[in-house]
Amino acid sequence: MFPQVGRREIIWDLQRNGGSVAATTERILGRGLEVPPPSFQPPSLAASAPHPPTSTPPSTQPIPQDLITRYNLSSKIQLSVPQAPPQGPATLPEAKKAGWSANKNERQALLQRRREEMILGARRKMEERDRKAV
């Protein structure tokens, strides 16, 4: 934004004013920035000059896994193969009648059951669509 001002001067001013970009911008536009002392060596100057962002993200990103593996639903897949009606609609009206439970554990169990039913239902739909496509 300000090519006439060096990075070292900007980093010095940001450190002096607590990281306020607005204050540093006002100083640059108003009276200019002070020259930092010769002993000041910004720690991020060497790291910010050449950016190699393509080398770090692949090593830090986790390997994506499917939802069945993430939520340990593989045992429920075998149980849901015989095209039984999903359990969700049967328990959903009961849950709507009862409303939110005051017990945290009951709410957590209800939300977990809904999540599992949603994932398994989506898997069934995908398998049916794949069967029809073939």
Note the topology.
Elements (H helix, E strand, L loop, with lengths): L6 H10 L4 H10 L14 H4 L8 H4 L6 H4 L3 H7 L6 H12 L5 H30 L1
Give structural notes.
The protein is an all-alpha fold and 134 residues long. 60% of the residues lie in helices and 0% in strands. It has helices spanning 7-16, 21-30, 45-48, 57-60, 67-70, 74-80, 87-98, 104-133. The radius of gyration is 29 Å and the shape is elongated. It starts with 6 loop residues before the first helix and ends with a helix.
Summarize the structure.
The chain is mostly helical and 134 residues long. It has helices at 7-16, 21-30, 45-48, 57-60, 67-70, 74-80, 87-98, 104-133.
List the defining traits of the structure above.
134 residues
Mean pLDDT score, rounded?
A: 76
Spans where pLDDT lies below 50 across 5 or more residues: 82-90
Give the helix/strand class: mainly alpha
H/E topology pattern = HHHHHHHH
Euclidean distance between termini CA atoms = 57 Å
Count of individual helical segments: 8
Strand content: under 5%
Main sheet properties: none
Question: What is Rg?
Answer: 29 Å
Give the overall form: elongated
Amount of helix:
55-70%
Question: How many strand elements?
Answer: 0
